């Protein structure tokens, strides 16, 4: 596995306000006390609803855990009723924004070009996009790799220089009983990594996998090809704090070097 491993969580809208606050209160001290989180071997981000952001920021204050938003406006501040701007998210200490999730594309007709516009707004205000991409149909690994690399290019068209977190989430695996096959995940993530590495504007970018992700998956992916996948993007599995911590423990076992020690990644 790579020098550091990323573990992200999106809470979608499963939690009401009180439950979210209780979850933050339980998980925050455990993540703060985790040695691999503290020294940067495991990089964690949590994405609650907009109304839960302030409580999340307060709960994770003083820890390396990053707080994100589940969407961002493609527009600047102004007469755009109902939107939440990148500038305001940055103002309230959000550092990552989830963009282009399959649900946004399906339910709200968001296109690749809308995704690129939102990613542009995010990067312009110092936010790191968690750029969700994935094929809708169950393709073979080679075809899926090609489709995702092409989608990535469109989603990054015109986006200013800056790192991104690419979350590969094949649509057919989201909410499924099992994740995509290990070799399939590795093949697609390897291709995405190669595309990012070939673009100097995306230095420091990360490729993670989401879609029925859970315990044991990181180790299996590392067994197929070490370093091909930089981490996981979790959904409902992370609602159980013990389950989330088990994935963080697994990530810690695979991280090779602390980014906060000599020889580590920045």
TrEMBL record:
InterPro entries (UniProt xref): Aldolase_TIM, TIM_sf, Triosephosphate_isomerase
Any single Pfam family the record assigns to this protein: TIM
Entry protein name: Triosephosphate isomerase
Swiss-Prot/TrEMBL catalytic activity: D-glyceraldehyde 3-phosphate = dihydroxyacetone phosphate
Organism in which the protein naturally occurs: Microbacterium aurantiacum
Molecular functions per Gene Ontology: isomerase activity
Enzyme class: isomerase
PANTHER family xref list: TRIOSEPHOSPHATE ISOMERASE (PTHR21139:SF2)
Family: Belongs to the triosephosphate isomerase family.
Enzyme Commission (EC) number: 5.3.1.1
Cell location: Cytoplasm
């Amino acid at each position: 596995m790579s020098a550091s491993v990323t573990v992200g969580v999106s809470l979608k809208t499963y939690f009401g306000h009180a439950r979210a606050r209780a979850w933050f209160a339980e998980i925050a001290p455990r993540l703060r006390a985790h040695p691999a989180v503290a020294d940067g071997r495991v990089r964690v981000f949590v994405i609650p609803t907009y109304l839960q952001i302030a409580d999340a920021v307060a709960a994770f204050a003083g820890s390396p855990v990053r707080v994100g938003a589940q969407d961002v406006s493609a527009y600047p501040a102004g007469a755009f009723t109902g939107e939440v701007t990148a500038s305001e998210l940055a103002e309230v200490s959000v550092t990552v924004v989830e963009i282009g999730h399959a649900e946004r594309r399906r339910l709200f007709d968001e296109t690749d070009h809308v995704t690129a516009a939102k990613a542009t707004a995010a990067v312009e205000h110092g936010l790191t996009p968690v750029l969700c991409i994935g094929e809708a149909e169950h393709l073979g690994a080679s075809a899926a790799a090609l489709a995702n690399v092409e989608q990535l290019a469109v989603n990054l068209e015109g986006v200013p220089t800056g790192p991104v977190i690419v979350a590969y989430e094949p649509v057919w695996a989201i909410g499924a009983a099992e994740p995509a096959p290990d070799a399939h995940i590795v093949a697609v993530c390897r291709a995405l990594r190669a595309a990012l590495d070939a673009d100097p504007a995306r230095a420091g970018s990360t490729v993670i996998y989401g879609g029925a992700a859970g315990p044991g998956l990181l180790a299996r992916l590392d067994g197929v090809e070490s370093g091909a996948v930089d981490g996981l993007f979790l959904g409902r599995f992370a609602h159980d704090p013990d389950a989330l911590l088990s994935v963080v423990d697994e990530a810690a076992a695979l991280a090779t070097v602390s980014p906060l020690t000599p020889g580590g990644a920045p």
